[in-house]
């Protein structure tokens, strides 16, 4: 869950007009000004710092214009990327303008937010700020039952006839070879991971049990060492034994499962998933035999793996897995396009077992 700053712009005429809405989609904007700091736009001095010019949007007409969006994404005072909501999400904003078919401000009413631009050359900032924006969209899609296809950029709102002629945010995305289509894929991936995560947690005991000495654990893609330093990709690609009884949330991992490496490093327990309990029988690492007892756990070894409706590439693609995570296989079957197909416990579909490692 994102830790969202709530700082309603109560002086803005849009807030005062308070036209009720039910969100039908999301419009993504970017600010068009080189300033990554939320304090430029958001009146929340404690969290985003003081705007010494007083030109934030908690005023009747920011910059002399009748304008308001629901939220901004950018740096807070500690240079953490945060979402700050300046309008309640059940009030129409004045963001996208209008086009030949109408306006996403009212009919249908879309939630709209601005991403704070920098000089549009820093790929790290770009990835991070769009990452938080995508997470925000995923949360909104879940909460308001919005389909990912209803997330549009201002530029697309214009092309669809529901907004003024602006190029944001694709003029920025284009510099890094991306479009709103890539952004929607990113949101879809997050939503799928959330669904998988919830279902796995509901159904599969080993993934929620507490961590003990001797357990085998996998490391999350976004993990850092306990002191915040980066974990190399090769370390994340292995699964590791817990070295000693964890103290609080600090877990020391040491040998990898094959015993070929030893790192003895502390990691926050939130980044670890137990894939085999210490007291369980010894793990097997053979390739998957013709008949395997189900269910069992696998770790995905590909960056992108299709989820299909049935056991074969001749059945429809119903999703994808992009997290190299751990999943439970409840049934195996032969089918075209893979040595063997495995059915996900979540019910999401079938995956090729050529791109998994059995745990
Ligand atoms: Zn815009």
Shape descriptor? globular
Q: Counting H and I runs of at least 4 residues, what is the number of helices?
A: 7
Bound molecules: zinc ion
User: Major beta sheet, specifics?
Assistant: 6 strands, mixed
**Could you spell the SSE succession in H and E letters?**
EHEHEEEHEHHHEHEEEEEEEEEEE
* Second-tier CATH architecture of the largest domain: 3-Layer(aba) Sandwich
Find the CATH superfamily of the largest domain. Answer: Peptidoglycan recognition protein-like
What is the subunit organization of this protein? single chain
Radius of gyration: 24 Å
Count the beta strands: 18
- Helix amount, in percent? 10-25%
Give the strand order of the largest sheet, numbering strands 1, 2, ... along the chain.
1-4-3-5-2-6
The top-level CATH class of the largest domain is Alpha Beta
What integer is the average pLDDT? 90
Structure notes:
- It is a single chain.
- Helix 3 crosses helix 6 (180-203).
- A 6-stranded mixed β-sheet has the order 1-4-3-5-2-6. Strands 10-9-8-7-11 form a 5-stranded antiparallel β-sheet. Strands 17-16-15-12-18 form a 5-stranded antiparallel β-sheet, with no helix packed on it.
- It is of the alpha+beta class and 359 residues long.
- It has 7 helices and 18 strands.
- The relative contact order is 0.10.
- Residues 204-208 and 282-290 have low confidence and may be disordered.
- The chain has helices at 13-17, 45-48, 123-144, 154-159, 170-173, 180-203, 233-237; strands at residues 5-6, 25-30, 71-75, 81-85, 110-115, 151-153, 216-219, 240-242, 250-256, 262-268, 272-276, 296-300, 305-308, 317-321, 326-335, 338-344, 350-352, 356-358.
- The chain has 3 domains: 5-197, Lysozyme-like (3-Layer(aba) Sandwich); 216-276, no CATH class; 296-358, SH3 type barrels (Roll), CATH 2.30.30.40.
- The structure holds zinc ion.
- Residues 29, 154, 166, 168 line the site of zinc ion (ZN).
């Amino acid at each position: 869950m994102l830790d969202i700053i709530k700082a309603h712009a109560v002086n803005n005429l849009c807030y005062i007009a308070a036209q009720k809405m039910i969100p039908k989609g999301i419009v993504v904007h970017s600010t068009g000004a080189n300033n990554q700091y939320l304090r430029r736009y958001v009146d929340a001095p404690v969290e985003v710092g003081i705007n010494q010019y007083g030109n934030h949007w908690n005023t009747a007409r920011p910059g002399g214009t009748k304008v308001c969006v629901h939220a901004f994404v950018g740096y807070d005072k500690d240079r953490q990327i945060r979402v700050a909501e300046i309008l309640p999400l059940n009030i129409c904003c004045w963001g996208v303008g209008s086009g030949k078919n109408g306006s996403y401000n009212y009919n249908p009413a879309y939630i709209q937010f601005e991403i704070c631009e920098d000089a549009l050359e820093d790929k790290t900032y770009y990835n991070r700020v769009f990452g938080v924006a995508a997470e925000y969209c995923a949360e909104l899609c879940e909460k308001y039952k919005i389909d990912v296809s209803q997330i549009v950029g201002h530029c697309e709102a214009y092309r669809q006839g529901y907004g003024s002629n602006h190029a944001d945010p694709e003029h920025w995305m284009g510099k890094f070879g991306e479009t709103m289509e890539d952004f929607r894929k990113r949101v879809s991936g997050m939503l799928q991971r959330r669904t998988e995560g919830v279902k796995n947690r509901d159904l599969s005991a080993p993934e929620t049990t507490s961590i003990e000495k001797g357990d085998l654990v996998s490391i999350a893609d976004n993990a850092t060492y306990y002191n915040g330093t980066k974990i190399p990709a090769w370390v994340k690609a292995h699964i590791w034994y817990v070295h000693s009884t964890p103290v609080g949330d600090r877990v020391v991992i040491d040998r990898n499962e094959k015993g070929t490496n030893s790192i003895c490093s502390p990691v926050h327990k939130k980044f670890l998933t137990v894939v085999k309990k210490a007291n369980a029988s010894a793990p097997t690492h053979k390739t998957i035999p013709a008949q395997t007892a189900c269910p069992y756990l696998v770790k995905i070894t590909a960056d992108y793996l299709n989820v299909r409706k049935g056991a074969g590439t001749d059945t429809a693609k119903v999703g994808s897995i992009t997290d190299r995570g751990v999943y439970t296989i409840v049934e195996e079957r032969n089918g075209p396009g893979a040595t063997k197909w495995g059915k996900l416990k979540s019910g999401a579909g079938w995956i090729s077992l050529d791109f998994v490692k059995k745990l």
